[in-house]
Write a structure and sequence with these properties.
mainly beta, 5-stranded mixed barrel, two-stranded antiparallel ribbon, 8 strands, about 35% strand
Length: about 160
């Protein structure tokens, strides 16, 4: 099984590009990096300095479009996906070993209000709340007209 779940903040704005498939369709490829805080101190760090690990992530298709539309530097997200080797040989003939996270799911890890109070500008833009009908009660529920109680699918 190859499954990873990470929670962290974007270290920079995502880089989203579109590839052309053989069928002529375009697919979004969103690349971003997240910093994941460690729960313990590294080495001789006695002064309470927080340490983090940095992970390169890639999202394809609709998820790549989501990354482009809603994520910006500082946004706190939960990324679920898989780890993939990204090994290559550089110009000097040396083998370079690295991994990347292929995102399968991305969720916001904090509300927009929490993000702005933490100094993060966050990319999440909530949809406008639907207008409450004028015949709605104070709790936001509409009053049921009399005479239709027996026609409702619930009681």
């Amino acid at each position: 099984m190859n499954k990873v779940i990470l929670m962290g903040r974007l270290t920079r704005n995502p880089d989203v590009r579109y590839s052309q498939s053989r069928s002529g369709d375009q697919m979004a490829i969103g690349k971003f990096s997240i910093a994941v805080d460690r729960r313990f101190q590294r080495g001789n760090s006695q002064d309470g300095e927080q340490t983090a690990d940095f992970f390169n992530c890639t999202a394809f298709g609709k998820l790549g479009e989501f990354v482009e539309k809603y994520l910006v530097q500082g946004t706190k997200v939960v990324v679920c996906g898989r780890i993939q080797n990204d090994n290559y040989t550089n110009k000097n003939g040396e083998k370079v070993y690295s991994v990347q996270i292929i995102a399968e799911e991305i969720e916001f890890a904090e509300s927009k209000n929490a993000a702005s109070s933490n100094g993060s500008n966050g990319g999440y833009q909530p949809q406008q709340a639907a207008a409450v009908p004028s015949d709605a009660s104070a709790e936001g529920f509409m009053d049921i007209p009399t005479g239709i109680e027996n026609d409702l699918p619930f009681k």
